[in-house]
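SEQUENCE-TO-STRUCTURE ENTRY
===========================

Backbone structure tokens: a row of integers, each naming the local backbone shape at its residue.

Task: work out the structure tokens from the sequence, keeping to the layout shown below.
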Amino acid sequence: MTVFPPESRAAFAANYPEVPHKLRHALQREPLLELDALARLAEALAPSAVEYNFADLPIGITAKPDPTGIPIGETIRRIGETGSWAALKNIEQVPEYEALLHGLLDELRPLIEARTGALQKPQGFIFITSPGGMTPYHFDPEHNILLQIRGSKVMTQFPAGDPAYAPDEIHETYHTGGGRELTWRDELLAGGTQFPLQPGEALFVPVMAPPFRAQRAGAFGLAFDHMAVGLVVCRSGRPGVQRRAAANRAESGPARPLAPAKPRQGTGLAGLCKVARPALTMTRSTA
């Protein structure tokens, strides 16, 4: 099965790695993404690969939300009524989901590697959200593509690499163990761009482009999020590097690949880029 049609692959080639854009995909009827299958996956994953909490949240939060106390399997099977948000992390640990992830990435791999070099550690995450749920305002330290599978949502995305939306200090703190939550102020909303997503649509989110997601009422949301993590993907997550690259483009035309950044001592590439973290965005589900 081909996941991305030719026009979506052409759009990706024209916009990756810096311009947010929508794509089409064909995963809406994938059996591995049905609720029962996802509940079984969640029950099989290690606790460290599962995160879930109440979904009725404000746009801005300063700490992790409270857990619901409902077992993860029941949370997913009854997502239409549990008022929950759940994330299944690093699904590539399971062979069937690893094949799914690599299959869709292989369709984009030549386009990615032509611009930003070889993929280093592709990882997949699945988000399941109750109607009316919100994924609060935060930043993502990696490029990602969010594929909407069920339900509908609106993702509000803000300019990448702009410290007015994601201060450099917060980004640096994240790489030493801090969180990805950002302080929300209502006046920021004017700088955001809304991307409505329906089943069969996907959205490319550049690194350090802060979002929030709102799941629309009427149906639960199910999104498959995969990250194509390569050397330049990680390097471009450093705000100073991203702004210098933008300045260079203004002076000398199209960007060229940047020289490899040296990982911090004792962390390695994964420690520098935090590639094991999911790319969460702020969304509200509709009930």
Summary: The longest strand covers residues 123-129. The chain has a mean pLDDT of 77.
